[in-house]
Every structure is written in structure tokens, then in C-alpha cells.
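Need C-alpha cells for this chain, all 387 residues.
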Amino acid sequence: MSRWPRILVSGLIFLLLVALAAGNGYWYFKYQAAQAVIDELGLLVNGYHLVKERYVREVEDSRLQQGALQGLVEALEDPYSEYLNRENYQKLKDMVTGSFGGIGVIMTLWEGNIVIVDPPMPGSPAEAAGLQAGDIIASVDGRSLAGLTLEQAAELIRGPVGTEVVLGIRRGEEITEVTLVRDHIPIISVRHQILEEEVGIGYLRISVFNEHTGDEVREALAALEKQGVKGLVLDLRRNPGGVLKVAVEVAGFFLPAGEPVLHVRGRDGGEETITTFAEPLCPDIPMVVLVDGGSASAAEIVAGALKDSGRASLVGTRTFGKGSVQTVYPLGDRVGVRLTTAMYITAGGHFIDKEGIMPDVTVEFNPEAERDEQLEAALEILREALS
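Here are the C-alpha cells for all 387 residues:
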């Protein structure tokens, strides 16, 4: 090994030891373990040096570093662990803090189509363009969405505020191109209303668990209480999850203080039980929770806790099945790594990962139906409970 790689190896080892000591307390390495680390880092630095000196074209250091980090995480073969470049790191921050550049619609994937499932957000570009619930988005900027996942389609639709996006909208057999200008879309994660005043059934939809969701749910429940709510539909369909502590907070609005919400299992096999931490806001009101294949992660935690405790019935279809906890570690210069650091299990001891949660009453989703059949089933359960 030449002098230059040796200097880099020494520096990397020093930084590794400092990071381990700072992040995890006191670490003791036996000689053999330390030597193994030195050998592995030496191999990495030799490869880096070889590319820098021998590749046919000059490559920027930043590009090689990002490629190395990306390859390191991809080697885990975990779909939820990823290297976050500046763009993706900022997108993640936007989703957690509650805003992004987009058009203001909520979508789902149904029979291979990307379908708008709720009326566009008030004041959004989608509302101004006349988009409606039930519209199928067939293309984005001339690119067909056939075969794409919901997240891939959403990535094409989102973009910098002030830029244009052309959507191919299908209603019936006709496809019309609509040009929209992306705008700053605040993620209002909670909507509420009274659906049946004579019975007193309220509706609470949570579309994502971000930093503001707990406060929004608290305000919504207070408003529903003033309107005389006696039963509640909690809609977690198409909710991809979000901040774990917020999900625990929301579950605590309906469960007694100290009630288990989930169990978290780390890499050492040990388990930690996460419980509610405050007195509930609605401890006794009859509830039904709507779930589907888009209900994932934090949404599954809430649904699972309410089902396992017997606090609510679940209506809809099997949930997505994402039972892992990701932690984001900043790496400086507005980049980072998102790593799976634990697995979670429902309060009743059921594994969610790749299995999901089965509803108590299965009702398939049909966007072409005149009425929301899943919601109708939930309302019928509450009507019987309140009669």
C-alpha cells in the first residue's frame, strides 16, 4: 500500500473509532477485530485510489463518495434503507415538517391505474384545473404511468414550486391533457366532519403522520365533540405512515394511559414496549377504523393497537405490511442515510412486516362505485352500536 492510501486508512480508522465512542459510549476492540477493520478499510481505500488514478476520465471526489455511500447501503438489500442525496434528503424533511411542491391531490393505485380518490385540496392547482375524485391520471408530461408504483407516479407529479406539469386525465373513455403549475402544498394531515347528524357519527381522516398531526387530531376531536359526536370513523386508508412518536400520541387519544401500543425489537433481539403516555381524549366513544393496502408503518401501528386492545373494529382490506423502524442519520452538507434500526410488533404480539393486518370486516375498494362501500360498512357498524 502506497503512502497516500495509508494516510487515508489511518484517518478513516481514527474517525471510525471517534464515531463509535461518541455514539455508543465506551468500545473495546480486540486486536483481531481491529486488524479486520483495518484490512477492510484498506481494501476500500485502495479501490478508491485505483479509480481516482486509473479510470479513463477524471471523476469528482464528491461523486465517488456518494457512490460509495449509496453502494454501502444498497448492499443491505433492505428496501427501506437508503442513501439520501440532497434532493431526497430535502424531500424527506418536507414530508415530515408538512409541505412540498405539488398539485394538491390524494391518489391510490387501483387495478393498475393511478386514481384521485378525494376531492382536490381547497385552493390547490388541482382544484383550479377542475380535477375530480375518480379521475384517472394516465400520464405525466407525456410519460405513461402504466406499470409504475404509486410512489413513482407521485415523484413525477411533484416538483419545484412554479414549474408546470402536464397530466393526461382519463374520465370514462376520453383522455384530456391538463396543464397545472405546481404550488406550495401544505400537508394538512387531518380532515374531519359530521357525517350523520341525527345519529352523531363523526369522520376523522389522517392522511399522514407528520410533526403537526397530533395537534391537528386534538383540534379535530375537540370540534367534533362540540358538534355532539357519539361515534367515530377513523380513516387511515392510503396513509403511508410517518413519525412514530406521533402515531403513539394519536393512539393515546383513544386508549388508557400506559396501554401498550407496540413492541420494538432491536438488532440484539431485545424488546421495548412503547405505551401511551397521557390520559385519553376519547376513551369510550364507539370507533371503526378504515384500512387498506396503502395503510402502512405508523398507520398500521395505530390500527393494530386499536384492534388488539379491542378498542375499535377494522374495516377494509389487508394493510401494506411495513413493520420496520427507520432512523435518519445526517451526514453533513444536507445529505444523510436512512437505516432500518428496529422491527416493530403490534401490542398483541403480531408481526406486521410483509404480513400486514387483516381487518375484522373485509370490504374491497371500488372507485367506480357511486358511494364509498368501505365507509358505508363502517357507518352501518356504528349505527348498530349506537342504536
